[in-house]
Automatic annotation (TrEMBL), chain B:
Coiled coil: none
Provenance organism: Alkalicoccus luteus
Gene3D superfamilies (alphabetical): Rhodanese-like domain, TusA-like domain
SMART domains: RHOD (SM00450)
InterPro entries named among the record's database cross-references: GlpE_sulfurtransferase, Rhodanese-like_dom, Rhodanese-like_dom_sf, Thiosulphate_STrfase_CS, TusA-like, TusA-like_sf
All residue ranges annotated as the Rhodanese domain in the record: 100-185
Pfam families: Rhodanese (PF00581), TusA (PF01206)
Protein's recorded name: Rhodanese domain-containing protein
GO terms of molecular function: thiosulfate-cyanide sulfurtransferase activity
Domain of life (superkingdom): Bacteria
Amino acid sequence: MMAVTAWNAADVAKRVIEKKDVFVLDVRNEDAFADWKIESDSFTYKNVPYFDLLDGVEELVPELPKDKEILVVCAKVGSSQMVAEMLADEGLDVAYLEGGMKAWSEHLEPVKIGDLPGGELYQFVRLGKGCLSYMAISNGEAAIIDATRMTETFTSFAEEKNVTIKHVFDTHLHADHISGGREIAEKTGASYWLPPADAEEVVFDYEKLTDGTSVAIGETTIGINALYSPGHTIGSTSFVIDNRFLLSGDILFIDSIGRPDLAGKAEDWVGDLRETLYTRYRSLAEDLIVLPAHFMIMDEVQDDGSVQEKLGVLFKENHGLNIENEEAFRSLVTENLPPQPNSHQEIRQTNMGRLNPDDEKKREMEIGPNRCAVKA
Amino acid sequence: MTIKADQTLDAKGLACPMPIVKTKKAIGTMEPGRVLEIQATDEGSLADLKAWSEKGGHQYIGTKRDGDVLIHYVRKSSGEEKEEITFPHTISNEELQQKLEAGAQIVDVRESAEFAFRHIPGAVSVPLGELEDRMAELDKSKETYVVCRTGNRSDLAAQKLEANQFQHVKNVVPGMSKWDGPVEEN
């Protein structure tokens, strides 16, 4: 019998970033596979539900490549392990993903973006869902922006770096994933900041994040300056850190722009979105490095696993920033939008503190791709 | 009302793939047309069981929840779609809808689990296998409309009823699989 290897989500993340040839045999049911999968330009895929393989894998073997690593994936782990062992019995070397798509969806890969006075700026890439979170560190203190609900990852990272989390921000009230911001703040005693225009219905206390809010971390005081930039939500706020990095939230992405409809107010907010992208951002320095809260396609991920681009480059290359005609812009961001994220209403309610689902339910609510962008 | 099944499978506490592995095994030992109840705690079992049933030609009937336990009902493929309808007196779904107000006798001969999840208001549940024994519960003089999922089981039932001196028997074609009139569940 050949060997079956267990890969964890980090093993898969490494291969995605390094653009390795991997053959994914996804054994979830067809609907689940059609909805979302491990995205990579260098991976190839085959979907055969595990329940079609219960009588044996002999017929499947000839369809599998001989010259690539084979990874069997399912929702949690059991089915992929079973199929991997069946393939091994047929003489194949295969791996299965520990924790399945659930683990993949929750994996965060920390990538260093750059140095800050007395510290560094890290991006946490959630490859399975396209969410990006940030931690700025300076002289023993840290600030976190747009944390996902895997709060352990952030608190452990801070411990590893021997820093105290002082401030936790959300650029806006998220509709596609559950924020970990409030929980981190509660655990660590940090301040939790939200834009008040997005927080009218929240049921907890928070610090009001408004235009011009300035917060310092560390002795060398790197500044984190809030910039009111509505459009994706009415409260959406961007941050400029150390006059070098622009954290654009869900307003501006690398290859697309934010959608204004997730709170049901596309028509009302489209004007704000245009004003933000075409006037407010235009007045910023072009050499700012844009760090969004999401990516949509693997093309947006750099070779080092980070997602970033200079603002000046986006003004040239991002089609959403280059629509002269206001009406054309309006119709782009209000018509023919992609489907809204799964459970987006429940997710918003959870982020307001009005719903308190358990972990299993939270996972279920977040299943599937994020769909916060409009691609022109 | 508790839903009757011919066999029950306890898959509680088992993670994927075991609920489906066990279901497949259990179904394999059952007679065509019989209903299996599967108790599971794995949330993923719902989507997988639906997909598996569809592929295997089995009929996924429905799922109830009892706390954390999902109770699924699946009817083993009976091959009934291939059989022919021979009883000469039929009525279409649409025509039957017109008659609902008149208080006709509607006899639903599907399995009780199928009936429990979705049936025509006022219909009486008499599974085909019990028809012989329970015929006395029905009124021979009334207009009687016999319904099942696709018109096959009701075809057999209609023949039986007519042979037992029921006066006005009609088979509803095609039956519940295409029914878009009012429904209720137990």
